Amino acid sequence: MQTNITNEEMRLEDMEEIRKHVRETLSSISRIDIQELADDVNVREELGIDSLTAMEVIATVEKKLGIRIDEGLYADIETIGDFLDLITVLYRKAHG
User: Which carries the bigger pLDDT value, residue 9 or residue 63?
Assistant: First the structure.
């Protein structure tokens, strides 16, 4: 039996994998349990991720996903969900 996967479905699967990778990266670098990384959690206030940790996360995500994250864009990020949305948009722009 052959399964037909549309381009849209494949993109959705890719985006879920990207979001999973970013959460794992955040968890690993910040030493915060991945279960605590809900979309509505405030990156700075609730998780205490400082600028140095943020730069390490950004560099790791950039390298792994082949994207460039402008530091100015990160300054506007408040929640994990905001960061994941930004990464998704940048990845789509970079890789179509």
Answer: 63
Structure pTM? 0.81
Total of domains in the chain = 1
Measured between alpha carbons, how far is 90 from 63 in angstroms, rounded to an integer?
A: 13
- pLDDT tens-place string over residues 75-86: 889 999 999 999
Tell me the pLDDT band of 49, cut-offs 50, 70 and 90. Answer: confident
CATH number at residue 39: 1.10.1200.10
Would you call 52 exposed, middle or buried from its count of C-beta atoms within 10 A (0-12, 13-18, 19+)?
exposed
Q: Is residue 5 part of a domain?
A: no
**In which region does residue 31 sit, left (phi positive, over 0), alpha (psi from -120 to 50) or beta (all else)?**
left
Question: In angstroms, rounded to a whole number, what is the distance separating the alpha carbons of residues 24 and 34?
Answer: 7
For residue 46 the two structure tokens come to: 């609730």
Residue 1 lies in a domain: no
